[in-house]
Amino acid sequence: MGDPWYCGSGDCGNRTFMSGLVDNNGGSWCQTEGVMKRTVSNNSPFQLHQSSCCWAYNTVSQVGNWRLLTHIDLGERSDTSKPNRSPVVTTLPINCARNYNLLSCDPDHDQVRCRYGVFSANECGMCNQHAGFTLDGSTCTLSYANSSTGVYIFELVMEDYPAHIITLNYTAMAAVVRSPFNNASSNPPLSKIPLQFALEVEAPAPSCTKGEYLPRIADVVFSGPLNSKKETTTTGEYVINWTPTSENYGQHFPFCFIAEGQHGFRNYQSEMRCVIVVVEAEGPRAHVTCTKDTMSVSIERATISGIHGDHLRLNNNDSCAVSSNSTHVFTTFSLNGCGTQMEETDEHLLFKNTIVTYDDPNHIITRKNEIEIEVMCKYQKKSSITTMFNAHRPAVNFTERGFGSFSYQFEFFQSGSFRNIREPNSYPLEYSVGQLIYMEIAPVNIVQNTEVFLESCVATPYDNPNYPISYPIITNGCEVDETVHIYTSHQPDVKFSMEAFKFIGQYDQVFISCSIILCQANNPNTRCALGCTNDTQVAPSSHVHKREAAIQTGSHFISQGPLRLRRSTSLTEAISPSLNLNLVFVAGCVIAVVAMVCGMMVYKSRGSKVNYQLLKSEI
């Protein structure tokens, strides 16, 4: 990518260049991306070309030079009043016989076509069209089957044609008309982009049937823009991070990824999946401050026009306030509360939350702009120790008409006597499989003449009751898990127990989230009085008229954890290094605000003794 491009025709201007590594796979291959900027004196078309020696030596065909040509047309389009934008494309190494859609996305919604390069037009060096491979030019799909093993060189050209007749206007030359694609060679494209790559055909995989062979994932390989980065969490998730800059506004960026499984020294891959990230415009400007136990966020009101401060909240959590004044919207919340999610990678500890808009649930329309701002504190693991991070969840505060403000605490106990609470500094709690877990949800200060009803409980590997992987424990007040035992009912608190378990796979923690309802004691018209019911339509409001609204509250979530399975040495050694794939990817116009602060902190885990240090502040 660092080799010079030469001007073939037109005013090619002056260039600046930068490059960097995107991804690599243990030295067997790597992808780098170069970004070239050119300053030109006018918007007339120009061409660039590049050539050198040589393609890979272990190719099926003879070794030869490579040549590239690109055609750029900056004329102002009559349909968009902007210069033409070329298609964007990316691809990955592949090794199963199937159709490969060479992802192409055109920002102007033009028709994109692919073809083999032509030697006489300086578009290719070897210009091979290999037997056993078929290229569908209208869909940019490459197919192969029954080809000999080895490395094949493809020198393709990607072109875009307008969907309807348009005019291109220039400052230094007469306007020209461009038409949709037809088979006539005289109909020129708007731009030409070289798409050249080497494809290695290995011995066939035992099976390329989707989901059949090696369901466990050893790695995820991705292709994306410069400065995108892949991280692996300790729970087996692959996270692709990329933060656009101001120069990326209005552009489209492709991300493609595949999952790899291993068998001996061979790698087997899933079908490639691709998405296009559109960087629409500059988003909210925010400042995030992270301490050892809180996150503070301040957002400039001028950058979220059309949004009233009173219409924002944290992670759909009514109890966590977002305040505002004439210039800023701001909030401070605990790393343990307000729906903050914790993720852990080999190098970092991440705490994430989201500021979202909300509306009156009784309305069926809205005229408020919607916004979603993800905020994050990122802490680096280090060996230094200063202060303890407390994973224990604090009491949750609620406010409801007729009941005022009240707080409930979710606690774990040492035994069925419910006398000795598991100390907050002992979290994450460790249990053996099948060991009884004793839990209590109780008010911090008793609200007179009330009882609490345990409506539902669910276990998840993260502190999110709506996480896709979940295990129901209690539903509609009924014990779903066969080991659950509820000790108290129609009391201000609720005590219950169950046997410890672990999620199958590499999830190493469990959170328990429960939904509770506070009712007027001894009132037969409340949800608490109904107890266990299999009627899925039962809801607190369905049994209460408006004049009786104060006899019970709505459903409120409260959670505690994490719990971790106590492993023996032999069990740890038996765990496969292969990880199940849970791909997390954020695409579109979600704004991520990352803050890293100075200081020191420790996250205590009895099993790993891992310590954490905070990073220097950046936005």
Automatic annotation (TrEMBL):
SMART domains documented for this protein: ZP
InterPro entries: ZP-C, ZP-C_dom, ZP-N, ZP_chr, ZP_dom
Keywords recorded for this protein, A-Z: Disulfide bond, Glycoprotein, Membrane, Signal, Transmembrane, Transmembrane helix
Keyword Phosphoprotein among record annotations: no
Family annotation (Pfam families): Zona_pellucida, ZP-N
TM region positions: 583-603
Keyword Membrane: yes
Domain ZP: 289-535
Record's protein name: Oncoprotein-induced transcript 3 protein
